[in-house]
Amino acid sequence: MGEKMISSIAELIADRIGSMPAGERRAAQTLIASYPMIGLKTVAEFSAAAGVSSPTILRFVARLGFQNYPEFQSNLQDELAAQLQSPAIRTLNPPSPGGGTASPMLEATLDNMRETFRHLSDRQLADIAARLAERRGKTFLIGGRFTDPLARYMAAHLAIVQPDVVHLAGQESMWRDRLIDMGKRDVLVIFDIRRYQDSLVRFAEKAHQRGVQIVLFTDQWLSPIARFARHVIAGRTAVPSAWDSSAALFVVAETLIGAVTRQLDANGARRIREMEGLR
Amino acid sequence: MGEKMISSIAELIADRIGSMPAGERRAAQTLIASYPMIGLKTVAEFSAAAGVSSPTILRFVARLGFQNYPEFQSNLQDELAAQLQSPAIRTLNPPSPGGGTASPMLEATLDNMRETFRHLSDRQLADIAARLAERRGKTFLIGGRFTDPLARYMAAHLAIVQPDVVHLAGQESMWRDRLIDMGKRDVLVIFDIRRYQDSLVRFAEKAHQRGVQIVLFTDQWLSPIARFARHVIAGRTAVPSAWDSSAALFVVAETLIGAVTRQLDANGARRIREMEGLR
DNA sequence: CAAAATACGTAACATACGATACAGCGCTCC
DNA sequence: GGAGCGCTGTATCGTATGTTACGTATTTTG
């Protein structure tokens, strides 16, 4: 068939957004971002939200094929009404004619997360959070080639709610020397998924020998570092892509960040406020 | 407490419909019958549907406690928005077959991802992937305080499948000077969620002026950088935590990485194998 | 049953909303 | 580097929309 099935205005926009001038594209993006609410408001409000002028909004709806703004709004309303009638089938992004959500990548990722958390007890999470929250020693974080950003992400947050959080960055020679600062009161958070990096394994081993408590984020096949780790978080990484996915580990990291923050709330809240003041 | 809990206009109507005159009651019943759609239309249409006159409709909304008709409509819209935003009551997400996960954090994150992708068309993703894959110029990536790790993560992967991928790290003064290398053949991927960082906005503006194509990862309230962006990805960030979640954006990033890799497969595969050999 | 009070619709009004004409600007293509 | 085109915002206009005043109908009450 020559034409595509366009059943919603959102699809219509997605179809034509490529061939729109900058201003109208901003209008389109603004509408999609909070679809479809902004489209139900007046042209003035719409234009203000998108940061463009009123005529641009009107040209935008005209390009979509509507004679005037009210007609555009009517269609949006009809669409909404249809959705409300059948709460079951939310068809903004249609279930992809053929079954399954349009993005198998998304589905796989969601599954990974559910699986990851299924094998992860609340108890375990709480224990790790408690360990990270008790301020006896320092917290070091490090990751592998692709997972180091996760270590950074976690460090960026933890460093705000407590002192002595350090992300080990840069060359191997750089952080290897930091071992000398690490002792049995300290915690080392390591991210390592396959291909497990030798340098990280060696580093973990050394740290372990010094009595450092290791929290390991790895994949379901477990990095060799698991041998030395006090806590192991095994996330699912398989997705229909050339790469492995770190998304499940990312979510676990965020969950931990949240839990630690909550535990430190009494002291941490003041600390956060203090920091705000320093800007 | 003396007052009842009134959380929706529908309840408000049910509460007062007993003390309404005949005409206004017809208005109320008409609204309830197709709640809330007819209330979003004009007074004239509403009155026609209810078989009463316009002033009766206005007296009806006045009795509900609204100053004027637009105010009444705004409240209806807010109510709708709240309903649409929270797929919370989405009974279709099985409570994890085999034991309900008690983690509200996980549930919220999963919802965020579904919502994010609902507002993200395959087309848009494909467009962005194509832009990133076509090797006309360089690809720059940068992020804000908490999102910079996402930029790193993406850069780490893209740099493997294609040349000229650079992550802008370090001090503002460092990457500000890199502007001089950037031109209209280049792409700049920016991560910026609220509190949006002034430095990033300024940087984006300058880059935009130089004709750089900007791909923006932001939250649903859209960073001001959206003004300059060619492509905007609006991810949901709300979770029951002291922090916002970047997990949805992370998944989008991974999806894009996968898409770009697939597109470059012909050439990219050889490049990857070559790299393997270099170890 | 009469008289008053309330409810309702018709019609005129004012506002704010969408639409349009036009000029300035940047971009592309010679 | 210059000419042409397309995009965007400002200012203006017409009109649809919400609002109000007033007269008529309907119900309520003494």
Offer a concise description of the structure.
The structure is a homodimer of 279-residue chains. With 279 residues, chain A is α/β, with parallel strands linked by helices. Chain A has 13 helices and 5 strands.
Give an account of the 3D structure.
With 279 residues, the first copy, chain A, is of the alpha/beta class. Chain A has 2 domains: 77 residues, Arc Repressor Mutant, subunit A, CATH 1.10.10; 174 residues, 3-Layer(aba) Sandwich (Rossmann fold). Helices cover 53% and strands 9% of the residues of chain A. Chain A is built from 13 helices and 5 strands. A 5-stranded parallel beta sheet of chain A has the order 2-1-3-4-5, sandwiched between helices. In chain A, strand 3, helix 11 and strand 4 form a beta-alpha-beta unit. The longest helix of chain A is centred in the first third of the chain and has 17 residues. The radius of gyration of chain A is 25 Å and the shape is elongated. The N and C termini of chain A lie far apart (59 Å). About 5% of the residues of chain A have low confidence. Chain A binds a DNA duplex (30 and 30 nucleotides) through helix 2 and helix 5.
